[in-house]
Predict the structure.
Amino acid sequence: MVYSNILETIGKTPLVRLHKTVAGLSAQVYAKLESFNPGLSAKDRIALHIIERAEQLGRLRPGGTVVDATSGNTGFSLAMVCAIKGYRCVLTVTDKISKDKLNNLRAMGAEVILCPKDVHPNDPNSYVKRAEQLAREIPGAFYANQNFNIDNAEAHYLSTGPEIWEQTGGRVTWLIGSASTGGTLCGAGRYLREQNPKIKIIAVDAYGSVLKKYHETGIYDEREIAPYQIEGVGKNFIPGNVDFELIDRFIKVTDKDSALCTRKLARCEGIMAGYSSGAVLQCLYQIENQLTTDDVVVLLFADHGSKYISKVFDDDWMRKQGFLPAEGEATVEVNTAAQQEVI
Ligand SMILES: Cc1ncc(COP(=O)(O)O)c(C=O)c1O
């Protein structure tokens, strides 16, 4: 099969069964490996869909500029689509971004503006406010606005959801994914719920994010906001692409457990997935007692581990965070009673 350009290779990612990391669980567990997209993440799907919708609606014209606030992956995907279609790409990111991701964005031709991570979302220096400002100021700019543009979730409703339904032969009973903009989980989840109203949809959240409390109480509580390390999990504001009605539960996971699970995926399954994928696996462990032998669980693994070589796959970084013992060999710790081996 020959493709006319790289954008045609987006989507149709594999669904792969997990074994050693889920030994002892009664359900069958599969991972949707979004790292197989050419930009190594699920965000390729939304970048292409958002830009093509903007073109169709006349919001983005030849010679235009695409602007967005992004933790890295969406920016990389937008830059890739811009490279093919000939648009300028301007991105704001927080200084939490890994060096690998930053270099990747620049490699793809994006102009990157670093913004402080620990400021109030309404602060003019926050990465979202800066992107809004740039979109207003740059002539011919289109603000992709992944947090509120519903074409984000629609991309997953039209592609990721149907793929999972088809790949599981309609047997999927649980969908677990991290929610940041909410597009991946809610877009795919909405499609799956339409096929089977009994499917459980679980969102992974971080300590330091406001989403879980908002889901449970309807209160946006700024006191929940705190710095954390996992990228692509949780938010410090309420994004428009999170469908709170659709999601059954939000479950919080720690930076440490998520990092250890990410490393475990590589060593036990040969799956080099990103930090948020480890968070999703950790979430599975926290609900494992609710699963039965009839369940088919799909974990959304959003991106590739190569983007975190200087974070979770760096023993020194792990030790500095207190996630590994200070001395001796790096170990992969396991977080469930069912799986106490240390590798
Ligand atoms: C690494 C990673 N994982 C998960 C997500 C969550 O995806 P979504 O924004 O669709 O909720 C993102 C998005 O920011 C991400 O970059």
In short: Residues 96 and 117 are 6 Å apart (CA to CA).
